[in-house]
């Protein structure tokens, strides 16, 4: 992955306390030259209104940036081509907030700002339920299908020698072109599936999956075939790098949810491979831009990577916790060894990482989300057994991230003096930041912090979609029919087609570039710097989409008339099940999903919840309850007073659920 800069030394514990030394050309400007929001003033004079060019989720934060607007400048929202004002507000600190505007129609809408710089209007944009997920998911899958090694023909690959003919013109991937060991492909794909499984089972797979040792069943969803593709090629390649071993651990953990389509033989191959190599320090097969460290995943990792993003702190935490569960499930020796490794790694982070040092946060580039997601996963799944101070450490990360986002873009900066990562193209960091912020938000308990994290997570998504100084989506082809709905301006530059290390230029959904230091706080004519897509950028985006799905998924039980949420239900009453989840992938059609309803007395039913209308927030179904012995699958949940009923959607630790208590009927 370019640019091919000189090798950088790994960051060790001692180095974390040091600030990154920067060349004079990257030094901050003086305060007298600062514009609203901080940074060098712009030479631009025309009123600019920068928005998410595709659209906004109706129930999430909705903000835009007007970098030249006077404080208090009025803004209005109208339908495109219609002068009727639907919403009014004022620009504060270069930001206009219209979160309170929650229309029932999708638009398109336009923001207009008036001030001393004149009157300016935004690109048209839409507003609707789960907008971001709806317009992004298919392109995320398309990218992972089209960026694979040998375009899906594994028979063309040579796995016996990592230095031999393999994958792509740059020979820089095992299963995806120019992917490297630190692209975390399987983590993103598996989490996407577990958080929102019904989003992936509606259409047949279209990709080519030839030459695999263990293929899936023909009816496997595309995302399952992608997961199996990665597993199969990693095993053919006999990977031994710790980061690639960790990807296989995710597969082992999730396998019960994939076993319908992936033969058991694949699971056995992967488990035997990992049990043999988990504690092996060697990492000589398949690695690029590596830093010196041990691949022994039982040891505490005290070396972290550079701005290349090659070794994020805490990368081994979730894989060790998953291997702990796999070992317990399969009766493997000493499962507690995996848990201790995860615990010790988290404790090391608590004791040694200083979030004020950008080398530990944005300085990890597109891999930053790995660290925060790992800490949040540990706390959410094993709270009582988590290391002392884990919640406080996540809170400290949140406070630093929130403070560094206090600017007119709501953009999480690199440091107090720099906006972006020095030397590197960083679309993956911006696209992956929501994964970290939303993971943290769901394990904290302060409403103000949670709201701030959701606001800045949304702002980074908006930045990807054009709310940035370049007024452009990060994907060069975003405004084409193969791009993203509603976007009018894709990234202005593109690596020469067919000449990139991964030949990703024509792949749908690729994230090509992002604004560099010169663009901030606002210089629309600034040099956009190096541009080239990378699998690691898109896999970070996949992580954000999965965390967004988790954050937007809510289950509740209601009275039969659906007019009030309940915590108790009497035997014999009808239970209304309400699911909110990003499942309206076709805005013109009322869609459905399957919810599992379980009684503590042993009965299990599934109900099909249906969207209240085309492009709605809520999915509903009613289920009868009754007395008597459990009869799973009969359409009536048999229960008794004192029991509980749990409604759930999603899989494993990524499911959303709600519980009601059963009481005796009133007489």
Automatic annotation (TrEMBL):
A GO MF label: cellulase activity
Signal peptide: 1-33
Keyword Signal: yes
Domain of life: Bacteria
Alphabetical list of SUPFAM superfamilies matching this protein: E set domains (SSF81296), Six-hairpin glycosidases (SSF48208)
Alphabetical keyword list: Signal
Biological processes per GO annotation: carbohydrate metabolic process
Family per record: Belongs to the glycosyl hydrolase 9 (cellulase E) family.
Full protein name: Uncharacterized protein
Species name: Allostreptomyces psammosilenae
Lineage, highest ranks first: Bacteria, Bacillati, Actinomycetota, Actinomycetes, Kitasatosporales
